[in-house]
Amino acid sequence: xxxxxxxxxxxxxxNYASGNITDMxxxxxxxxxxxxxxxxxxxxxxxxxxxxxxxxxxxxxxxNSGNIDSEVIxxxxxxxxxxxxxxxxxxxxxxxxxxxxxxxxxxxxxHGTGWMPEGYFDSNGEHTSVFQLSPKRISSSNxxxxxxxxxxxxxxxxxxxxxxxxxxxFAEITGKYHWxxxxxxxxxxxxxxxxxxxxxxxDYIAASPxxxxxxxxxxxxxxxxxxxxxxxxxxxxxxxxxxxxYQAMTGSYxxxxxxxxxxxxxxxxxxxxxSIVAMQRNQMQSVDRMSVQHYFWxxxxxxxxxxxxxxxxxxxxxxxxxxxxxxxxxxxxxxxTAEFIGLKIDPEKFSGLSCYIPDSRYVNLNAFxxxxxxxxxxxxxx
Length: 382
What we know:
The protein has one domain (2-378). The chain contains twelve helices and 17 strands. It has helices spanning 11-24, 85-99, 167-174, 192-197, 219-228, 232-247, 266-279, 281-284, 307-312, 317-330, 363-369, 373-378; strands at 2-8, 39-45, 55-62, 68-77, 105-109, 151-152, 155-158, 163-165, 179-185, 202-207, 212-213, 257-262, 305-306, 331-336, 339-340, 343-344, 354-355. Strands 4-3-2-1-5-9-10-12-14 form a nine-stranded mixed sheet, sandwiched between helices. Strands 6-11 form a two-stranded antiparallel ribbon. Strand 7 (155-158) and strand 8 (163-165) form a beta hairpin. The chain is globular.
């Protein structure tokens, strides 16, 4: 079963959601009577007369004439909050009951702020005890044609309520099943904190350490690889096409980063990092955060830095040899354009995964970070 979950109640994302589905259906679509291949799409968009459209779970299939047909499996109504944990769990349960799959792939598409707490990224989370605040949109004053750019920003965002899925809830819910791969079409999910939280939920994760342009993943090629090559080779191919798509664009739209993570290696990665942190605690304190390759182009959103470049700024050469050897096993594909909306990305420093570098200014964020599985293992924030 391939489950495509699109929570697109914010208007800028909503405008592209239907196009992504249309592109996807131009590729391989399984037949109606297939016993091993099922394509289900959950979709909720921004409404015209209501805040949201009706949330539906639909099966798509090719008929005997080779045309694409569909049938609605479940209609959850327009009051459905696609980013509420109970709602998300309900959709997965319906899909599971309908298909009874032996293999699963999840493509999750919405806004995204990686591992961060609900509302923090789009508000000044240090000045409020409630992170759930209205998101701000991109300013048109920054870079070339910025007023025309749209970017996918929560893991999931329900725009009317401003609800976001906590990465821990996402892991708990998806972890009830086993997924061969998760394609996370949301900003900043290519973070070691997010990947480690999801390590027991799936075999592979494809995600970006930066934001993702509104075009998202290369939807037209996804299904053939997920159905016909459900393995590391097929997932690499999706990532390669992701990079190729953005590399072929011009101007600020030539902005894309992607990585494929082998989840079976994440525990070993954490062991290596924990050992280095324990021995280099004093050296960590003197790291100049802004000298590390970072993946944010808005200076007041300094939460995502390159994992390898960060550790290389305080670890010994011998320690980095072990680190890089394990990193090569963990990130099995990575690619990045030379810039992301004006932010230069050094190919020698790009590891494919981001991480948080603690800052004493972020008291609330540091307190939240301590709760994440990655920090509990590696002890970045004490």
